[in-house]
Amino acid sequence: MKAVGLYKYLPIHHSESLIDITIPKPKAEGRDILVKVNAISINPVDVKVRAPKDKQEETPKILGWDASGIVEEVGEDCKLFKPGDQVYYAGSITRPGTYSEYHLVDERIVGKKPETLNDAQAAALPLTAITAWEGLFERLGIDLNNTQKNKERSILIIGGAGGVGSIAIQLAKLAGLTVISTASQQESINWCKKLGSDYVINHYKPFVEQLEEINLKGVDYIFCLNNTDQHWDQIAASILPQGKICSIVETAEKQDLNVLKSKSATFVWEFMFTRAMFQTEDMQEQHQLLSALSEFIDQKRIVTTLTDVLRPINAENLKKAHGMVESGKMVGKVVIEHFE
Ligand SMILES: NC(=O)c1ccc[n+]([C@@H]2O[C@H](COP(=O)([O-])OP(=O)(O)OC[C@H]3O[C@@H](n4cnc5c(N)ncnc54)[C@H](OP(=O)(O)O)[C@@H]3O)[C@@H](O)[C@H]2O)c1
Question: With a threshold of 0.90, does the pTM exceed it?
Answer without folding.
Answer: yes
